[in-house]
Amino acid sequence: MRVTPSQTAVLAPPPRISVVVPTYRRPDLLERCLQALLAQSIGAHAFEILVVDDGHCDRTRSRVEALAARHARGFLRYLRPPHGRGPAVARNCGWRAARAELVAFTDDDTVPSAVWLEMGEREMGRRGWMAMAGRVFVPRCPSGAPTDHERMTRGLEKAEFVTANAFVRRSGLRRLGGFDERFQRAWREDTDLQFRLEALHGPVGYCHAALVVHPVRPERWGVSLAQQKNVFFDALLFRKHPRLYRARVRTIPPLDYYAMVALTLAVPVLSWAGQGLLAGACALGALALVARFALRRLRSTSHRPAHVLEMIATSALIPFLSVYWRLRGAWRFRVWFF
What is the spatial distance between Cα 333 and Cα 190, in angstroms, rounded to a whole number? Predict the structure, then answer.
C-alpha cells in the first residue's frame, strides 16, 4: 500500500484502539462523526482515528488534515486506498494501517456516544471475544410516521453485526484477510465477515452500552430503486454461505416479485397470441400484487401525498429491478440463486 509522507512520520507508541472510518464525499457528515470521536471518554492517548477516503475527495482531505493539525502527530490520519473502490476496500486499507490490536469500525454518517470506545474495549477485554457488535440507534422522526427510507434505516437496529458499530481484533482480520473486496457496495460485506469470523472463532459478541447513533440522511426521490442493486451482492453472500443465508438472511426467495414480473411479461405475449381475456386477467393479477406491495410498505409509514405517490410508483418498479439484479448476480457469481 502506498502511503503519504504524513503516514510515515514517527508516531507515538501504539494506541489501544484504532478507529477506522471509511468516507465517500460527505465531508460535513464526516466532521460531525469526527467531533464525536474526539470527545471519547477514554482520552486521545488511548486511540487513533484513520479516515479512509474512498471518494478521493480533496475537500474531505483538507477538512481532515485541518482537524489533524490541532492534535498530536499520528492521532488522526487521512488515507486513500491505492487501488479499488468500495467500503470493503476502504476498511481493509484502514485496518491494515492500524497500529492497535483492537480495531473499531464506524461510518462517516454516525455519531458515536462519548463512551463508545470505553464500553467496547471493556467488554471485548472482559469477554475475550474476537469480534463484537455494538448497539445502533436510529433517532425517530419527530413529525410522525416515518418514510419508507427511514423505516429501512431503522433495520440497522436489529442487524446482528454491522460495520457502523463493530469491534474486531486485528489478528482475526489478518487471519481472514479482512473484508472480501468483491462486495463493492455497502451491503453484505459485514455479514460475510461475521460468518467467516464465527466459523473460526465462535459467535460474535454484543454490547448494548457501546452505542452509536445513526441519524437518517435525507435522500432523493426513489432511493429504494437504486438500492435494488444491493441484491447483486446477495448472490455472492449466498454462494459463500448458502446454509447461513437461508437460515439468517432470507429464508425464501421473493416469490411475489417473480409473480409480478411473470404476469406483466405474459400480458403482451398473450395479447399477441389472441388470448385477450387471459392477458387481461394477467394484467389485473399484476396490478393486484403491486397494490398489495404498496399497501404493505405504507402500512407503518407516512401517508403524506408525496410519499404515497412515491410508494405506488416505486412498488411497480422494484420487482423488475430486484429480479434483474438477482439474476445478474446469479450469473456473475455462477450460483443457482433465485
Answer: 18
